[in-house]
Structures are given as structure tokens and as C-alpha cells.
Design brief:
Elements lengths: L5 E3 L9 H7 L8 E3 L9 H4 L4 H12 L5 H11 L12 E4 L2 E5 L9 H5 L2 H11 L5 E7 L3 H10 L5 E8 L5 H8 L6 E7 L2 H12 L2 H9 L2 E4 L6 H20 L9 E6 L4 H11 L4 E8 L4 H8 L1 E3 L20 H8 L4 H14 L1 E3 L2 H4 L5 E5 L2 H15 L5 H17 L5 E5 L7 H7 L8 H12 L5 H4 L10 E4 L3 H9 L3
């Protein structure tokens, strides 16, 4: 099997193996790692349709993580996709109101980030062994709500690792915050910052590209890596569930192998929908990828105009994981539609840093035909939750509701009746207040009591991820300014 190598989006240095790219997380020049080519699936979709999630994962990951042995990959997969998921299918689908909802929230933190962050620690530790790297890995991550807890759960007490998570102290839901600040594990550190997610993400990137700091870490036996979707080890496992969803539709005779389908993806940092784009490059029969934004509609405006402009009001919404104005993974798409040009991508990213905006060429805009776009206001989001509940009894979270609203508008505008999968990225139990308010129920109790009310309304048991929070001690109380992030990391590591 041909080895797939990875290179930076910002320079033309020699490409490196998948395991080395996963270990590094971010390229030395600040760019993101991308595959030098996209391998094609080597199984038919009739064959995929007969596979379990774990089997599908192996047949996808072996193509892109080609320097991992069969034994190594299967071991990582077996440890990741086990009974920590509360559904044997790992990613079940529910048909409701003319669409298929791909439920990616059956892991232990009840959000789609579990799908990749359950396997990333094992991929990373295996990579360290493969590359004879004996430094302790320090996972440094910014979160808009879900990545933080999923990464903490994945790396807690994993030998040879430490993890530091920064979150906007006023920019996550109460359940998301409680999940993070009660996290156990001697190797974990959670810090709220005075600022928004973009501030946290920018601060993390600055730390990553600080060469003097990297040297200090190395001399003390540490190295940085990332659990954010800037790490290619996060993106590649996400390709799996798009293949699995398609295969399930084939297996259930909803479509025939080779038929095209659409995916609607609630999108903030652009990693989830980029994974679907990568799946299409590898041969998955996708027609449209519908990018669904909330009121922070910087991606909607980009796809409409070809202009990316973060210079706008940052809006706190009921879908906080999408409250993002700098969508890091869009850089990978920019690189690809610029003809895999590192110099062009680097120029656009410099413009983003210096002026907060850039405009792509007409030729590049012509290469965005795989995508459609839409956005939902806060009222639209609440209405989407309420109407689906009233019509079917099915309860969705605000992020999924953004996607549902956008899908409804897309069908009205285009008349496109292609079978469509809506990517359901989080359990409604992570956003009980917003969901209960949307369906017209009282929200004046504490967040854990609201879980019981939502359980009754949805006729769904309260997830263990919520039950485990009852009585959990608050272990992480640190708050810092956005300019103090580096100092807090050094303090946690015991480096003067």
C-alpha cells in the first residue's frame, strides 16, 4: 500500500509521515498538515455496508495513516470504540421529518468530538513509540465547549501525556463548563480565560509557534501537540463516520451503492465538514456539503462572497461550539482550492492576521461547488427545535437545530430532494436550558435538575455523562487573562 505523506499548508518543506504529523500537531511554520494526495477507497460500498463501525474505521484509517501497521491500527480502534459508547452502532441514525440524523453523541462526553478524541490518544502514544520519541507529550487545546471535555476524557491519566485546556469562561454552556472543571486526572489542567474562543485559539497558536518556548520544553523533557482539529489526527478519524453513514443507508436499502447523498453539517471551526470534503475526495458519493452557520455567520458570508472577514461583532449564542470568527480548518480548504499552493495560502493567512480579512480569486471560488451554505438566527434555532419536537417527539440540540433550519431553507430554495444526512453533533442534554426553553418548558431549576425534565420530555434516559456530574467536585478553578496563557502552561509544567 502506498504511503500517504503530509505537508504544511504554508511552506514547501519535505513531507512527513502520518505518525510524525500527528505527534507535531501543528507545523513549525504555523501551517496545518494536509495529505499530499487523497487515496481512493479500496472497498465497494456494498462491502462497506456489511461492516461494523470498527471495521469501517480500519478500512478508512489504513489508507491515510499508512505508516501504522495493521496491528497498531486495530489496537487503537479496539481501545477507542468500545463500551465507552452507549450504543453498539457507535454512530446510529434516526429518520425524522424527511432527513436522517447521524447521532455522533453516544460517547462519554456526549458530543461528536468523542468520535475522534477517543482514538487520538492511542494514535499519539503509538506514534511516539514508532518514532522513538521519549519526551512527555503536552496536549495544548483551546475549546469552544466540546473539544475540551472530550480531549480531557481521552487523555486523563494516559501515561506520557499532560493536557492543558483553555476555554472562554463566559462562552460555554453550564453543562459544558461543569464537565471540564470537574475533570479528574493528575495530568489535567483546565483554565478559563477572559476572552472568547478566538482569543483562546490565537493564544494556543502563539504558544505552539514560540521557538524559544519549544526549546525550553525540550530541555525539560516535554513537547507540545494538539487535540484540536488543527491536528490531522483529529480530522482523519472523522472521515470514518461519513463513510459509515453512507454505508448504513446502503445496508438498509435507503439508497443503492453509488447513489449520491447530501450532508448538512453545523459548522464553526470547519473541521467536521472538511472531513466530509476529504471523504468525497476519497470517493464517497456526496453531492452537496451544506455548511450551516449560526449568527456568527463568517463562513456563510465567505461561501456567498469569496471574502473572509472576521471584523465583526462576536455573538454569544445557544450553539456555543459554533461561536467562532476564525475558522482554523478553512485554511486547509483554501490551500486545496489554491492548487495546493503553500505560498498563496500563506499570503491569505498573513492577510487574516494583519487585516482580519482576505478575498479569494474567482478561479478559487469556482472550486467551491461542492458546498452550499445557510445560517440560522437564535429564533430560527429555537423554532427548529420546537417544530421537530412537536411534529415527531424527537429532541435535538441547538447545533443540530441550526443544521435542520438551514436544510429546510436549502430544500425550499433549491428543490433538491437528494437523500440527506444531518450531522447531529451534540446531545440535547448538554444544552438543557436552551432546549427546554425552545419546547416551552420551565427552565428555572439548576442545570442538573433540568436533565430530569428533559428526560421526561424527550422520553430518553439521562446520559451517564450527566449523571456522573451530580456531586462531582470542582477541581479546576483557574481563570487567567488571554495574555497570561503561556505563564499558566509553564506553571502547570513546573518550568520557571
Amino acid at each position: 500500500m502506498k504511503e500517504i505523506l503530509y505537508k504544511s499548508t504554508r511552506s514547501d518543506g519535505a513531507p512527513i509521515s502520518a505518525s510524525k504529523a500527528i505527534l507535531k500537531g501543528l507545523a513549525d511554520d504555523g501551517g496545518l498538515f494536509v495529505p499530499t494526495e487523497f487515496p481512493k477507497f479500496d472497498r465497494s460500498f456494498d462491502e462497506f455496508a456489511k461492516e461494523s463501525y470498527q471495521e469501517t474505521a480500519y478500512d478508512v484509517l489504513k489508507l491515510l495513516l499508512s505508516d501504522y501497521s495493521e496491528e497498531e491500527l486495530k489496537d487503537c480502534i479496539a481501545k477507542a470504540y468500545d463500551d465507552k459508547f452507549d450504543n453498539d452502532e457507535i454512530a446510529p441514525m434516526v429518520e425524522a421529518d424527511g432527513a436522517y440524523y447521524l447521532e455522533l453523541f453516544h460517547g462519554r462526553t456526549i458530543a461528536f468530538k468523542d468520535m475522534a478524541l477517543s482514538i487520538l490518544p492511542y494514535l499519539m502514544i503509538t506514534a511516539a513509540k514508532k518514532n522513538n520519541d521519549d519526551k512527555e507529550i503536552v496536549i495544548l487545546t483551546a475549546t469552544s465547549g466540546d473539544t475540551g471535555k472530550a480531549a480531557l476524557a481521552g487523555f486523563a491519566d494516559v501515561p506520557g501525556t499532560r493536557i492543558v485546556v483553555f476555554y472562554p469562561k463566559d462562552g460555554v454552556s453550564s453543562i459544558q463548563k461543569r464537565q471540564m472543571i470537574t475533570q479528574k486526572g493528575d495530568n489535567t489542567c483546565v483554565i478559563g480565560i477572559e476572552g472568547n474562543f478566538d482569543d483562546a485559539q490565537t493564544g494556543v497558536k502563539k504558544i505552539f509557534t514560540d521557538k524559544d518556548l519549544a526549546a525550553d520544553l525540550a530541555s525539560n523533557g516535554y513537547q507540545f501537540s494538539s487535540a484540536n482539529s488543527i491536528n490531522i489526527g483529529r480530522l482523519v478519524p472523522q472521515i470514518v463516520y461519513y463513510v459509515y453513514a453512507y454505508s448504513k443507508l446502503v445496508n438498509e436499502n435507503r439508497i443503492k451503492a453509488g447513489d449520491k447523498i447530501n450532508f448538512v453539517v453545523p459548522t464553526g471551526n470547519f473541521g467536521n465538514i472538511l472531513s466530509a470534503y476529504y471523504a468525497k475526495q476519497m470517493g464517497l458519493p456526496i453531492d452537496k456539503l451544506v455548511c450551516a452557520s449560526n449568527s456568527n455567520k463568517v463562513l456563510y458570508d465567505f461561501f456567498r462572497t469569496g471574502k473572509y472577514d472576521r471584523n465583526r461583532e462576536f455573538i454569544l449564542t445557544s450553539s456555543p461550539s459554533m461561536d467562532i470568527l476564525v475558522s482554523s480548518n478553512l485554511e486547509r480548504l483554501i490551500y486545496h482550492i489554491a492548487g495546493d499552493s503553500a505560498s498563496k495560502d500563506s499570503s491569505y493567512m498573513k492577510d487574516l492576521v494583519t487585516s482580519g480579512k482576505y478575498s479569494i480569486t474567482e478561479e478559487m471560488k469556482d472550486k467551491l461547488g461542492d458546498f452550499s451554505e445557510g445560517y440560522a438566527s437564535e429564533d430560527d434555532t429555537a423554532s427548529a427545535i420546537r417544530s421537530l419536537y412537536d411534529e415527531t417527539g424527537y429532541v435535538i440540540d441547538p447545533h443540530t437545530a441550526v443544521a435542520r433550519h438551514v436544510y429546510k431553507e436549502y430544500v425550499e430554495e433549491t428543490g433538491d430532494k437528494t437523500p440527506t444526512v444531518i450531522v447531529s453533533t451534540a446531545s440535547p442534554f448538554k444544552f438543557e436550558t436552551s432546549v427546554l426553553k425552545a419546547i416551552g418548558l420551565p427552565t428555572d431549576a439548576d442545570d442538573l435538575s433540568l436533565a430530569d425534565e428533559l428526560s421526561k420530555a424527550a422520553n430518553v434516559a439521562v446520559p451517564d455523562a450527566i449523571l456522573s456530574l451530580k456531586g462531582a467536585d470542582i477541581r479546576h478553578k483557574m481563570i487567567c487573562g488571554k495574555d497570561e496563557m503561556k505563564d499558566e502552561v509553564l506553571k502547570f509544567l513546573g518550568i520557571d
